[in-house]
Fold Rhodanese domain-containing protein.
Amino acid sequence: DYHQAMQDPETVVIDVRNHYESTLGHFAPPPGGAQLVDPHMRNSIEFPKWLAQPETQAKLHNKKVLMYCTGGIRCERATALLNQMTTVANKSDAITNKGNGEKEPAFQPKGVYHMRGGIERYVKTFPQGGYWKGKNYLFDKRAEQCPSQKTPDLVEQEVTSQCCLCAQKWTSYRGKFKCHYDYCGVPVIVCDACRPKGLTHPDQLTCELCQKGDTQVLEAAVPDLVGLKRQAESLVADPETKKAKKTNNESPKEDNNGDQQVIADRIFVARLPLTVTKTKLEQLFQSENQEKQETPDSIIQVIHWLTDRATGGFYGSCMVQVSSPQVAERILAQGAAMRLDKKRIKVSAVRRRGNESLTEAAWPPKNYQEREYPPVGHFQRI
């Protein structure tokens, strides 16, 4: 499991949280165990910048990579991003020739894992703390979380944060004090004695990263995440995905009866966010058909998440069989305006190949499994 994996010296543990969160607490793998890496981020937008840097990828190459965050959401998305980057790096021309003539991937971790439930779940599973040191920064009214069976004095000893004004050790964020630099603005720690000064002289509030002049990640180029995702999809997409995309870009063909070869009750859906679920897609389709009295209770009859054949990872596409051709027509008519979790998605018709009949087209596919969520693939939850 994740706890045991931190004992492996061939493992890198990445704190996917912001640096100001890490100052209150972080994992400390045992001596001789995994290496802890803090990307020194001011916000999560900087993580793709850090991950795209050559020195970062060199550090992760041929290593088992563990990621963690507060509740498990950020690190789950981070594993998906890392998987996309490795896919593009290894299936492009960026391949290193070894001395024996063999080839090895330019950038390939031995495995990518994230902590299910994040730090919150870990400290509940290990009430004495395990490898966790300090406090878990929280964004709700609790403000922080500590292992239940670890004494407050020991927790305080483990925290190394300090007041940004007087440098006195201080272990809590209180008040809405923020770094005064316009490009930063992250929360800063101000002790009780310095609170009056912090209120009257906010221009003197400076976070730890800005005090050290640490702007490497901040100033790094932003990778093209949309282009990266599309390139990864094109490189490793399931043949069924490629077939659907190719068919949708071709002029409609006609069968022996002169009709277009469209499977009337089936839809190809692409550009889906990683947060998609069957329920969310059902609700979206229902909203597009709600004015029609004949709309059934359940529009989606079959949903087949399309994945990478090598890793089983989901890349944002699926095939959906809906309740009727009429429902499919209404969804396709609204396709350009449809959004899921604030992201515009793409829907298109599914067409048959050549003279293939409806009975000849295997549906659902042999590898079909009824799922509420798309499969995660080899970046496992542990």
Notes: The two ends are 6 Å apart (CA to CA). The longest helix spans residues 73-91. The first strand starts at residue 11 and ends at 15.
